[in-house]
Amino acid sequence: MTWSDTSSTVTPAGRQTYFFLSYAHSVPLSAAARPDTDFWVNRFFQDLGAAVRRTARRTGELDVGFFDGLVDPGADLKRALTDALSVTHVFVPLYSPKYFSNPWALGERDSFHSRLRGLPAGRAARHVLPVLWLPLSPWEERPETAQALELARDPVDRADYAENGLRALCKLSAYRRQYESLLTALAERVVTVTESDPLAPSRAATPASSTVVDSGDTPLVITTVTPHGSRWRPYGDQHALAVADYVAATAERLGLPTRVVEIAEARTRAPESPTVVLVDASVDPGDARAAVDGLPRWAVPLVIAADGARGDDTPETIAGSLQDARFPQVLPVREIVEFERSAPQLVIEARKLFLRHGPVDPPDGPAVPRPRLRPEGPSDVPRGKEER
């Protein structure tokens, strides 16, 4: 995710918050995995909110905190996050190895930083209170992690915190005292900054239109087979986003670059990219199969039934037709909750199959001579050709 430099001087609406929690989403490990794969992030958010509430004096005017788990699944997530970042006083990033390579998390950080431009460096830094969520290996250390360790006042607590990260301290009862101490210290700093040096509400930078990030990953291609094109919204007012954009947002939150394209362009890109195909159940089964004909074996389809087709057997008919064509994981979904649950697994399955079956040709470049064990010299001259 990239962020545009288009912050507005218009005062944003909505109640202000003491803090905004930012983190890199975890990848669900199986189709049976719980939808809230970041369970401990949610637990920490609740604990920090309670600690802030015990100390704060302005809870009648301000909400305590915000993180993306509070956003309705059908909402426009980028807009909701931008709105929240525009009215928060303190940004609390949960640093981990994945945080610094996750474009979604870094986008949130850049968005909040857009509100700090023009402030003295010392004052701006007060409004960012990082936490070491998962420890980084020595070769991954960054200046930001040193700032996160400042949260621990006691040398013993700091040692446990640096070695294990706050997530482990949150999970394990053996570290309850250290966890409570760090939680209290963070809550006090959040309240002190908010109430002694409030940040005036201002419109944060909003996401740019491009969702492709040069992260080293091959962009995930997302396409649709429907008369409505990539703007297809089978769940109507229940989702602010088109289903293709929802899957793209899911992929971005997991740190994967994406491209939403029409089916014709998908046929061109799929041989070199992981691919997700969202199939409208109202399409004739023969037409659906013809539309995906020629896509590589790692393309992962999902058949989605529109509201009017929920009592029809068309989704199963299309799924059966695609399975006959040897496409993997062809699952029909009807209810919106089924679609939301399937989106992360759809993304992960597409990437996994691409890594397993996709092209492995080496990049183009100059030919490199094969290494030789024997030294070059007279002994390399063919027998019978020695110089006399």
TrEMBL record:
InterPro entries: FxsC_N, Toll_tir_struct_dom_sf. Residues 360-369 have a biased composition (Pro residues). Residues 373-388 have a biased composition (Basic and acidic residues). Transmembrane segments: none annotated. Residues 358-388 are annotated as: Disordered. It comes from the Bacteria. This is FxsC C-terminal domain-containing protein.
